[in-house]
Amino acid sequence: MSEIFYDDHMLGIFGMVANYCYGKGFDKEWVNRFWEGLQEQPDLYEEFIHFFNTHEILGKYKLHGFSVLDTFVWQMEYDSLEHDKGRNGDTCDKDEMVLQAFSHMIDLKHNPEQWTKILSEDQRMDWLDY
């Protein structure tokens, strides 16, 4: 019989991250996909942990020329267009948008052609399907 090893530290971090994501309205499937995606990109994981601890986005890690700052700006523009306001008001949840920005970096790794195009296009047109 093989022994099962697990890292108590990582398990604790996952629990905190999962609770944070659940608090922002994300479901278990989303949280698991998000966590797995962070584990696939150690530099992105480190940036996320920095954000989680400080609420500051570093933007050092780049993938296909994009950083989390780029995907965060894209998400803010998308949210603004989706709510047809032209700006992000007091009702928008910036932390939720940051989680989405990190998620888009995971999407960029898995679907680079699609996400490079999405992140490069001008959003001021009337489209919101991605």
Task: Please characterize this protein's 3D structure.
The chain is mainly alpha-helical. 64% of the residues lie in helices and 0% in strands. The chain has 6 helices and no strands. The chain has helices spanning 8-23, 28-40, 42-54, 68-82, 94-110, 112-120. Helix 5 crosses helix 6. The longest helix is centred in the last third of the chain and has 17 residues, at 94-110.
Topology:
Elements: H1 8-23, H2 28-40, H3 42-54, H4 68-82, H5 94-110, H6 112-120
Helix pairs in contact: 1-2, 4-5, 5-6
Oligomeric state of the chains present here: single chain
What is the mean predicted local confidence, pLDDT?
83
Largest sheet report: none
Principal-axis shape equals globular
| CA gyration radius, whole angstroms | 16 Å
- Residue stretches low in confidence (pLDDT < 50, at least 5 long) are 1-6
Query: Structural class from helices and strands?
Result: mainly alpha
How many H/I helical runs? 6
End-to-end distance: 46 Å
Helix content range: 55-70%
**How much of the sequence is in beta strands?**
under 5%
Record field, number of beta strands: 0
Secondary-structure element string: HHHHHH
Which descriptors apply to this entry?
64% helix, mainly alpha, 6 helices, disordered N terminus, 130 residues, globular
Could you give a quick summary of the protein structure above?
Helix content is 64%, strand content 0%.
